[in-house]
Amino acid sequence: MPEAEVTIVAEKFDETTSHGAGGLWKPYTLGGTPPDLVNRWGQDTFDHYLALYQSPEAPQAGTILTSAYQLFPEPVPDPEWAAIVPHFRHLTDRERAAYDPEGTHTHGWFYTTIITEGRLYLAWLTKRLAAAGGHLVAQRVGSLDELAGFDVVVNCSGLGAKELFGDDSMYPVRGHVIRVRAPWVRHYVNGATGTDKDCYIIPNTDTVVLGGTLGKGDFDTTPRDEDRRGILERAYQVVPSLRAAEFVSEWVGLRPGRPSVRLELEQVALKQQQPGGSSGKSSLPVVHNYGHGGAGLTLAWGCAADAVQLVQQALAQR
Ligand SMILES: Cc1cc2nc3c(=O)[nH]c(=O)nc-3n(C[C@H](O)[C@H](O)[C@H](O)COP(=O)(O)OP(=O)(O)OC[C@H]3O[C@@H](n4cnc5c(N)ncnc54)[C@H](O)[C@@H]3O)c2cc1C
What we know:
Elements (H helix, E strand, L loop, with lengths): L6 E4 L6 H4 L14 H19 L4 H4 L1 E10 L16 E2 L2 H6 L8 E10 L1 H14 L3 E4 L14 E3 L5 H4 L6 E11 L6 E4 L7 E5 L4 E4 L3 E2 L8 H14 L7 E12 L4 E8 L13 E8 L5 H21 L2
Helix pairs in contact: 2-8
Bound molecules: flavin-adenine dinucleotide.
Flavin-adenine dinucleotide (FAD) binds next to helix 1, strand 7, strand 12 and helix 8.
């Protein structure tokens, strides 16, 4: 929308959930979001990252192309998104053995995927926004009434939507990750997929992300000794050379869990006229775009494209 004037209002512009994420392209903890939507949003996003990766912008945007090795204790059906990632196939016995020294996994997937490091990608997006004349306002929003001066609001408040829009269906999915320095580790490896003792290894630009935990309903963002020990032990089993890696940092983030991603236009009633407010409006069009669970970076671009269409629809209805 080249003619739009865009202002991003956010309490935090750093250290958000998106900054801490591993950045792997893979649909994950998305509740019951319909697979056809996940695939459409996911494909658009994958294509966007791939184009970025193939451009001179890649180092600034934090995109890395990598091989993925995903192991399972028992055979599982292929994922709905198999056709989106290049080279999807089953692991051979020999490939599986490389990451399964104890031979406890009998099935596995190989594919090529993209990692987009949130910290770098958000900085890159922010620069693009500034270059296009966009504004940033650091402000905690207590009520939609505070935004009554805008024509349309796009709600990308993540888990914050629980309080801001009273969405009681939202819940945190607590995730603990550790960053280490291990430049020799360049593959994404995942064992025990989707359990609360998940084991994943995601290379980023300067660090490697080791995870993780899946604490549904847990709001505690303090790292726990037991989780840290478990993450490291499981990672060492899969890639023993990680024992030589230097510990860099650890972080606990809350994935914005929801029964389904919410991407829709709603006319939301304002509670009252703000003091000094000039709008005289009783409601405001809000394009909701939140609840992306463990896959915000995986679906971001595709969801944003739909959100833009809904903004245009809202403006046309004025
Ligand atoms: C450990 C971990 C690993 C992950 N790994 C991956 C991965 O590998 N791949 C992937 O695709 N996804 C991953 N995710 C998931 C991903 O991080 C989230 O889906 C994504 O960050 C959600 O983005 P968001 O913009 O909706 O929310 P956020 O990044 O949380 O941003 C919300 C913004 O809204 C602002 N806000 C909220 N409420 C208010 C308010 N009342 N007033 C003003 N501002 C407000 C916040 O300050 C913030 O700026 C991971 C998550 C975790 C926790």
